[in-house]
Specification:
With 257 residues, the protein is of the alpha/beta class. It has one domain: Rossmann fold, CATH 3.40.50. 47% of the residues lie in helices and 15% in strands. It has a 7-stranded parallel β-sheet with strand order 3-2-1-4-5-6-7, with helices on both faces. Helix 4 runs parallel beside helix 6. The relative contact order is 0.15.
């Protein structure tokens, strides 16, 4: 899975799955744009990439191996600015990983409209905004990979997460619609549906919840961010060129059928 010469942009790259994806793509040879709100954390990820991979070696490339692009991906103007900066730095975008996501859990009877809107905007609308900005470059070069990070709870639902589950289910619909729209231009669009992954987002869950979740996983272990990142790297590669409109479950067997 050699991504030398490719340029990837990863949202939510400051921690967790996004950070792991950025590092994995860089190790495979891609230059990476790192998007999130926390510039300090992004700079740390960029340093990790430079330390793990070294400076950019693509003979046709310019600039650093990783570029920090601080932005709130729920803000359309900031999204446009981040993509403009990425194109200015790298000249193109080949791979887009829509990973950024938040939770605002509450039973639907008590859920505030502001919490519904915040989750839908960050988890779903941002993917639409980023995809819209990335596609022109992909169309021009007639090659592209769009990978949306959804969730097992977008497939089966979860009590107390009507907003989160809805946003992640929406990502699956977006994936299939975009796959149909751009497939003729050699652009694939796929989704990855992680199950219970050890990240900062899941670390705040109660021990009871974690133990009950573990009982639902046939492999008997919690997944890692790297488990997801390895699958993202595959879907971004030439080896996955005939896969599009697909939802790849990365959940230890949690969801079957």
């Amino acid at each position: 899975m050699n991504l030398t010469g490719r340029v990837a942009l990863v949202t939510g790259a400051s921690q967790g799955i996004g950070r792991a994806c950025a590092i994995a793509l860089a190790k495979a040879g891609a230059r990476v744009g790192l998007v999130a709100r926390n510039q300090q954390k992004l700079e740390q990820v960029a340093k990790e990439i430079e330390s793990a991979v070294g400076p950019a070696t693509d003979p046709g490339g310019t600039g650093a191996l990783a570029r920090v692009l601080p932005a709130d991906i729920a803000n359309e103007d900031q999204v446009k600015a981040a993509f403009k900066a990425a194109i200015a730095e790298f000249g193109k975008i080949d791979i887009l990983v829509n990973n950024a996501g938040i939770t605002r859990d509450q039973l639907i009877l008590r859920m505030k409209r502001a919490d519904w809107d915040a989750v839908m905007t960050t988890n779903l609308t941002s993917a639409y905004l980023c995809t819209q900005q990335a596609i022109p470059s992909m169309l021009k070069q007639r090659w592209g990979r769009i990978i949306n990070v959804t969730s097992v709870f977008g497939q089966i639902g979860q009590a107390g997460q009507a907003n989160y589950s809805s946003s992640k289910a929406g990502l699956i619909g977006l994936t299939m619609a975009v796959a149909r729209e751009v497939g003729s231009r050699n652009i694939t669009c796929n989704a990855i549906a992680p199950g219970f992954i050890e990240t900062a987002m899941t670390s705040v869950l109660s021990d009871d919840f974690k133990q009950n979740a573990l009982k639902m996983i046939p492999l008997g272990r919690v997944g890692s961010a790297e488990d997801v990142a390895n699958c993202v790297t595959f879907l971004a590669s030439e080896e996955a060129s005939y896969i599009s409109g697909h939802v790849l479950n990365v959940n230890g067997g949690m969801l079957m059928g």
